[in-house]
Specification:
Layout lengths: L7 H28 L2 H11 L2 H11 L14 H7 L20 H9 L2 H22 L10 H9 L2 H9 L3 H14 L5 H18 L7 H5 L3 H16 L11 H14 L12 H11 L7 H24 L3 H14 L13 H10 L5 H16 L9 H27 L1
Helix pairs in contact: 1-2, 1-7, 2-5, 3-4, 6-7, 6-9, 9-10, 10-12, 14-15, 15-16, 15-19, 16-17, 16-19, 18-19
Length: 413
Amino acid sequence: MTRTIQHPYLKLFLVQVGIIVVLIGGGILFFSIKSGGIGPAFDYFFSYAMSDFGQYLFFSVQKNPYIGNFHTMYTPLNFLLLLPFTFFCRGNDLFYRLSEVSVEEYNKAVVTSGAFWLSYAPYVLLFIVFYVFLVRRILPSDMEEKTWFSLALIFSNLGIYAISRGSNVQQVLLLLLVFVCAYRSPNKWLKELALLSLAAAGVCKYYPFIFGALLIKEKDYMAVLRVILYSIPLFILPFLCYEGGLANISLYLGNLGKFVYGENRISAGNNLSAYSLVYKIALLFGGGEGSSVLRYVALGFCLSILLVCAVLSIVSDNRFTQYILFNCAMTLVCPVSYYYLVIYLIFPIAEYMREYQTMEQGRKIYYLVFFSICGFLPSLVLPSYVLQTMLYFGAIGIEWVHLTKKQKQKERT
């Protein structure tokens, strides 16, 4: 007689919380021993924790975030979405000094201030509330403990890295969840909200536009057109909210290029992208990182991946296949892909739970390993994420073979 585990997802959530506590405690202990005291350990922690959110606050309160000694490569829509959380930061000198001091000094100053926590805490709390509300709607209808499962996911390595950094991928995830939940809605206002959400997500990060393949699959070309039409003003008009106006568009594009090729980001071990993998392989065989030929090879490779993922996701009738291919495209194609992008694996994991009983054994085992390593193995364990990059490549290969088999089966019948 098999024994059913009582409240498995509540227990999974508690395990994830326990892992977080152990990692934080272990990190403090490690740096305390290394630096000779608990004070320096906390100094190190406050110099880097929630640093992305601290920088977003700085950009949001600037008259022009595209100039100065510390400028941004994000579109202004990112900062406008953050405006409701900047109330306690405006006029506070701490949040205007990033151009004058080092990132570490700035971060330590703001993270130890009350104004920061009055901004960050509501941001995270509202994110989690809306996230649970939306994820529950994409999980199997007969699934028990949906809330605990959703919380277990976001408090695993899937979400905790993004939360600990205060990354804007959190708001993009919510926008994509709204799109996925409502793009088929018979209610025209809900559907329009879904299309607007996809446009906003794409303007914030670009790679979410791959979800538009769902509209193409439905042959809803007017919806595709509306997403494009929404995206244009969402990209352009927010520039008018800052000094410099539309002239900042060229500055933004220049800043974006500087970010991609600055600070050795391309070949860094924490870069998950296929673009980075090309550089790592070339450097392994003595290639030069500054080679223009290498740059074009990497770009061509990434565009090929994007094309393959887009075509396969449109051809496929399987929602899990579509979501996993979207994740592969979003993670592999950008020149710089940091670990917080694994947060989007929430979409295929939700479908994995739905299809678990009917999924082929080989695919089932592969994705169990994939999700375990990318989502539940703490990112601190590995100094380089080439293994995770290769898992994404493996997923493309598996889905290609799976679709080919399905197509041959259709032809026989």
